[in-house]
Amino acid sequence: MKRLFTIFKLIRKDVVVMLFALINKRTPRAFRLAILAALVYLISPVDIVPDAIPAAGLVDDAVIVPAILAGLRQLLPPDVLEDCTDRAGNYGKYFPIIMGAATLLLLLWTGLVLYGIYRLLFS
Prior knowledge:
Blueprint: H1 2-23, H2 29-43, H3 56-75, H4 78-91, H5 95-122
């Protein structure tokens, strides 16, 4: 279990670096599209191995997403990578706050959608 948390911590740093690379003006357009494709795969319900298969569906995401991040990190121009890594290091201490705020917004959004569905069905 400890090894799994270590992997998640490493992925978290790479994800933040890639998000900074996404908004950096010196990042090539093709690289931005690759980052967006990786993010779409990450949040997409369609996987190479379906999540319905016990354990294999989760291992799919745990292997493919870090591999994509590692590949993208090596393709990023060195000056942009250094700049984004420095910026990500500065924001690392705020990550728990950002994740808490994102979770709160997601819960509020979900509540609003459920309320809208309730109003449509029972009004």
